[in-house]
Amino acid sequence: MAKTVTTKYEVSEHLRTPQEMAAYLEMCIEEANGDAAFITKALGNIARAKGMSQVARDAGLSRESLNKALSGERSPGFDTILKVISALGLKLHTEAARTTKLTAQLTPIQPIAARRLILALAERRNMERCSICNCILHRTARTYAQPSPKGRSHATKHHYVAERFFGRSANRKDTKHQGVFDKCLWGYEGETAVFCYECHEELLHNPVFLPEEITLFAEITKRRGLSEESKSKDRSRLAGRIELLHEVISKGLKAVAKMKATANSGLENNSRKRCAHSSAPQRRR
Ligand SMILES: [Zn+2]
């Protein structure tokens, strides 16, 4: 009978540079979900890649106690962990938690793809991302936003406060018409953020207002004395309505931010599906 020869996949053989080691450790910490043994084993893999004897010497431990500490079968002391990390030539750092895992954005992880994954992770960490949806943006020469998945992530610059409010537009250089505001009310004139084409054009520039919402907004407009029967040269009422809409969005955002994350997340609740599957749109009460 033919004998099947299998070789064990050795992560340590694929950790060749300090950058790869750091990216691998970061990935393992993200994937560990609090499993300390998993992280300890990852440290063991990096130590093997560097050479156990050398790491033991640099950490001031015997080889035997280093082996035991990184076996994943016991919980080594935090001081030992710190010594090992330092001996590995790595540094611990912290940052605010992300809501999605780096690896969750990748296609299913195959052990054989570990090296490619490590490199991709290191690369992705430094990539420019959309300020809203966090997608990786692309800025390649001679390409523009297109309906393809890649084209939808085309980087676009967005002015927080529209230039036209001040009578200017980058599209019409050296022309200035009458602005709505003389000075930015919020102090962000000329400041920009980078978004994907999708979030910029299809989300920010096209807010959805249903008939009852327009009616309500019109009522508040009237109550605030911002209605106008005929247009005058003075555009202060428009300025007031712009300010009012900003107030509505800002206060609404803060109210939504306080809600539980599960209340409105997930594609199952997505209005796109509601629109696609029912002839009569459902209204929230
Ligand atoms: Zn986006």
Strand-helix topology:
Elements: H1 18-32, H2 36-50, H3 52-59, H4 63-69, H5 78-87, H6 114-125, E1 155-159, E2 192-196, H7 197-204, H8 211-223, H9 236-258, H10 271-277
Antiparallel strand pairs: 1-2
The structure holds zinc ion.
Folded structure, characterized:
This protein has helices spanning 18-32, 36-50, 52-59, 63-69, 78-87, 114-125, 197-204, 211-223, 236-258, 271-277, and strands spanning 155-159, 192-196. The protein has 285 residues and is mainly alpha-helical. The chain has 3 domains: 11-125, no CATH class; 129-206, no CATH class; 211-277, no CATH class. A two-stranded antiparallel ribbon has the order 1-2. Helix 3 (52-59) crosses helix 4 (63-69) and helix 3 (52-59) crosses helix 5. The longest helix has 23 residues, at 236-258. It is elongated, with a radius of gyration of 28 Å. The N and C termini lie far apart (71 Å). Bound molecules: zinc ion (ZN). Zinc ion binds at residues 130, 132-133, 135, 195-196, 198-199.
What would a concise description of this structure say?
By secondary structure, this protein is mostly helical. The protein is 41% helix and 4% strand.
Q: Could you say how many structural domains there are in total?
A: 3
Q: How far is the N terminus from the C terminus? A: 71 Å
Proportion of strand residues: under 5%
SSE class: mainly alpha
- Describe the main β-sheet briefly: 2 strands, antiparallel
Order of helices and strands: HHHHHHEEHHHH
- Mean pLDDT across all residues, rounded? 80
- Write down the Rg: 28 Å
The best one-word shape is elongated
Let me know the number of strands: 2
Number of helices: 10
Unreliable runs: 1-7, 276-285
Which hetero compounds are present in the coordinates?
zinc ion
What portion of residues is helical? 40-55%
For the biggest β-sheet, the strand order reads: 1-2
